[in-house]
Structure formats: C-alpha cells, structure tokens
Amino acid sequence: YVCIAMEALDQLLMACHCQSINLFVESFLKMVAKLLESEKPNLQILGTNSFVKFANIEEDTPSYHRSYDFFVSRFSEMCHSSHDDLDIRTKIRMSGIKGLQGVVRKTVNDELQANIWDPQHMDKIVPSLLFNLQHVEETESRSPSPLQAAEKEKESPTELAERCLRELLGRAAYGNIKNAIKPVLIHLDNHSLWEPKIFATCCFRIIMYSIQPQHSHLVIQQLLGHLDANSKSAATVRAGIVEVLSEAAVIAASGSVGPTVLEVFNTLLRQLRLSIDYALTGSYDCAAGVSTKIIKEHEERMFQEAVIKTIGSFASTLPTYQQSEVMVFIMNKVPLPSSQHAIEAGKAGENRNRLTQIMLLKSLLQVSVGFQCSNMLTALPSAFLDRLLSAALMEDAEIRLFVLEILISFIDRHGNRQKFSTITTISDISILKLKVDKCSRQDTVFMKKHGQQLYRHIYLICKEESNVQAHYEALYSMLMLISIELANEEVVVDLIRLVLAVQEVAQINEDNLPAYNRCALFALGAAYLNLISQLTTVPTFCQHIHEVIQMRQREAPYLLPEDVFVEKPRLSKSLDCLGPEVFFWQSKISEVLGGSGYNSDRLSTPYIPQLTDEDRLSKRKSIGETISLQVEVESRNSPEREQRAPAEEITYETLKKAIVDSVAVEEQERERRRQVVEKFQKAPFEEIAAHCGARATLLQSKLNQIFEITIRPPPSPSGTITAAYGQPQNHSIPVYEMKFPDLCVY
Asked: Among 200, 319, 427, 527, whose CB has the most other CB atoms within 10 angstroms?
C-alpha cells in the first residue's frame, strides 16, 4: 500500500506544473521524510527515489520557508550505513548519495532557497561523499574476480560519490570554495589519510579538475594554511600535505599561485626552516626528549625533500619574470656572512646556518632547472649574482657545488649540459652534437659587465683544497657552457688565459694542494683546451694542444682526465719534476691564435684576478681605492701637467688604433690602480702622510688663489678703479652680500 500511495504521489507531482505546486510539495516532503525515518531499507530507498524525482523538477517560483536540513542529515546518515547485509548496505549508501545529489541540485542555483554552502550542511555532505570514495577503494583493493568487478562497478557507490562531488564543486562560486574544501581537510586529518597520501592525492585531483580554473589558487591557499596549522604535526603528515600541494600545483598550472606569488613561497620556506630546527633539536617542543631524534631526523629529511620538490612544481607554473622574482626572493633568505641575516654563533648555530644554506640553495636549484630565459641580464640581476657568487667562496664543499650547478642551469639554454657530464679529451667534437647559437648582443653586454667576476670565482673555486670530482666536472661544464652560450672572441681569449692561470696554480703550487687536486687541475685544463681548440677551428692551435696531450699520454698520463677522473685515480707524487713539453704554453698559444686574428697582446698577458670584486659585492669602495682615485685626479691636474700637448689630428687610422689598443690600455690602467692601492695598503704611515701632505699643500695654495680673486670688490659705479688688493678698503662690500659664481659655492 505504501508503494502504491507513493506512486500516486509521484504521478501527481510529475503532472503538477502550476504555481500551486508549493502547496502540494509540503505534504509530499512530509511523506518522504516519514519513509526515510522508517527502519526498513526498502522504504528508505523508496523515499529517496521519490525525492530524486522531485529534485529534478525545475520550479518557477521558489519557496522561502522550505527547509532541507532534515534531508541533508538523513541522507548523510544513509551514506554511512553499516547494515550487516553487504548488498543492502550498498543500496542504502547509494540511495544516500543520490539523495544528497538531489538536495544539491534543488538548492545550489537558487539563492532564495536554503543555502547549501553553509558550513553546517557542507560538514555533512562532503565527508559523506569522501567516506564512500574511501570505503570503496578499500573494498576494491581485495582484487575481486572479473565478473564480480563488473557487477560491483555497476552497483558501486564510488562512481556515484565521485560524480556527486564533482557536480558539487563544479557549481561552487568564488565565495563558497572555502566551505567546500575545509571539510575535506578535516576528514583527511580525522582519518589519518595524509600519511599514505594516495587517497588525499586522489581527492585533490578530483577537486582541482572539478572547480572552475579561476578558483584554483583558493584551494592552494587552503592547503598552505592547513600546512601552517599542522606545523607541529608528524613529519609524515606534513610531507603528505606538501606532496598533495605539489600535485595540485601541477594540475592548476598558471592558476595555482594566484595574486600572492611570494606568499606561497614564503610559507614553504618557513616550513623548511622549521623542519631544520626540528631535525637539529630532535623534538617539536624543547621540553620533549631526544630519544626519537634518529627517526625524526630521517622523516624531516623526507619532508624537506618534499618541500623542495613542491617549490619547483609551483615555480614551473609561473611566467619567466615571476620565476626570476622568486629566485631573488629565495636567494635573499640565504644566510651569508655579508648579508643582513644574522649568522648564528656556536656549533648549533653553524649547523643551522649550513643546513639552511643547503636547503635554500637546493630550492633555488629546483627553480632554476625549469627556468628558461634568453636574456642573461634579466635572468641574473647584479644583486642576485653577487649574493650567489659570494656563496661560491664558502668553505663548505657541498654549498660550492650547489652554486656551480645553479649557475650551469642558468647558462645552459640549449640542453648541452649532459654532453659535458664526463671530462674527456675527445679527438672529434662533432660526436657531441652540440647546439650552438651566435652570441647575442645581450649576452655580450652581460659578459662585459660580469665576465671578470665569473672568472675570478671560477679561479678561486679551483684553488679550494676540499674539491672532489663532482666540483671539477661542474667547473668543466661551466667553462664549456660559457664558451658555447656566451662567448665572443674576447671571452674565448679570457677563458684560455683563465685556464692557463689554473694550470699555473697546479704547477707552482703555492697553496700546497694535494696531488689529486693538482692532477685534476691539469686534467681539467687539458680537457677544456682540447674542446675549445676544436671550437675555434684554428689548425695550428689544435695542433699545439694535440701535441701536448699526446706527450702527456706517453710521459705523464696522470695529467689527463682519463686517468684522474676515475674510481681509482692513478696519480704521481713527482709533479714538481715535470718537463716543459707536458704543459700548455701561453706564448705559443698567443702566437698561433694571434696569427688568426685574436688579440695576441691580451692573450700573452697572464690572468690575474681583480682585487676589487669583493669590495664591489658590498657596494662600497675600499679606503685604498678611494685614495687612489683622489691621487689620480690630483696628479692629472698637477702644475707639472699644465702645459698641454698640441691637439692631435684625428683620422681613421687613429680611431682604429684607439679601438685596438683599448684592451691593453685597460690592462695597464688596472695594473697602475692595483699598484696604487697596494702602496696605500702596505706602505708605512709616515710615507703616506708625507705624500698626502704635499698634495694637500698644493691644493691649499690653489684654493687661496681662488679666494683672493673671488673676494676682490667689483668695479665702482662711477667707472673709477678701486684700490689694489692688499691696500685698506674703506667702502668694501661685506662678504655676506657678495655674489659668488656658482662654481665657487660649496
């Protein structure tokens, strides 16, 4: 009888299209509520089916007083059914999901109806759907037979729950996203579903693909906020949240970060710093014991790797200019001795600083790997490059290696990095299939501005005693990539000079480097000159390099990469007794390249690293340099040079000579300045005082002359000449009333 009565009600409902449907619906919903309250599963299912039919009817006029609270609660309860009979339990759960879907459809688009997005409703609907998704995943993991699987798929609540969740999220407006996502996070917390992360990832994959793309960043913000809220949870939980973040960022692509770009990275970097503290102290609170330190350290390391991977995922979704901003932001967080970040004292402080530096540089490397920028000036702004290179001179070998890898990833714009992963002296460069483009104007400007700075740091890194094979491989890659990506003739000349200077470091060994380091530097030079000679395609240059390599193969194979950069390097302790024929000679290289149009004067000048680069890093000149500039200005204006030389006639030849000689003049000027700076740094105080005193006296006499001329009174209005300077003036104008020329006023 109940079934017949409900069928009659359903048919009346379907036939009723007039405005009076509201009057009828109240009675109808009471009947459905009675059925849902019944303990008999069949009647609950019958009531649900009737409600679904009603939900699919589009009403012309809304009902202001109709409430769906009971239905949301009851359908959510049915979704969690724990009936003993599996088939009946599945049917009740499916009915519950269908009922919730009906409630959503009926209310979601009508603002005058009950607001389904209120937390009180969302806190019931979303967990009910997630429970069914989760439960079915567990039951399906028992691997049923194909027939059972087909049957289950037809009847399983999983697809229905997923479809309902997608529909719900797809209809969510900007202001409702938060209320829809919060119950998901709470459900994952309550059921400890972050740790395996499979289900959590699955949930957020559904969410990210279902919501409107412009709302993606709201989900990311919710996840970041949740990560902050769980900052004292177990590392595995935090790692789960971070990995879900990474997945979500990849799906959302450019919409993942939203308007607050740096806030996303700031949150992730803050979590990284907290994790380092936890790993060092061995507890989330200072009061806790140290017994679980080993486990936590291992877990924290996993979490740190997850954060670094996520930073890379987020950065890869950004446009180039924002990636550049993010890298500057990360680099500014790295604690360096020259920066405003306080370097902590003591052993614990040192460990914290070192770990922070390594983790932040790892993050930077992760971002730089996906960074593609054709303009090196944009990719490496001066402030960023200065900070990065100052980290390259730190004692920690691991930090130096990270800096080299970061620089390589910036310079390598054509994917040539892997071709230089092993250091060898190959006879034919064509087998590497290098991608080479002509050096652009921007690259030339970049090398003019920062070339000497890069060379100096490469030179100083080569001299580090703690270098291992990975460092030499990175240095080799960097030298080769600069030669391919950023080199014009001038840069090639400078790189050859630099490598010959490195050979000299190994040969003279003023720094008392171990045998391995010396052999590695010899081998590095051989491998680089072998490839650069083939790139320059100057036959005589190739011949000289080839002859030296052949001589080394016969007389000193331990100076070649094939013997040095292997698992068990074959070294020699008699490196000070080597003959001249196994070295590359600057005079010979200068001669053969000079004949092919290269600047032989510059080539024959030994490379000496500039002393003022470190001062330039701190954006101020040293006292010695300031004095040298002062002396230079004075010497140029001294009386000895007052007599001017006759004006030289400017012709095409003189202009050409000026351009050609400019490099040599620069070198001489730099050397002269270096000598002046050295004099002021090392000379006795009395000598400097006497020198400056003589100059000061000269300057004072000049000033006196100027003041004498200036203070003379102007001619009188009557036209008569006033008394000569030095005689008493009765009617002279007071000094404060005089009109001084602008140049004399200070």
From this structure: 527
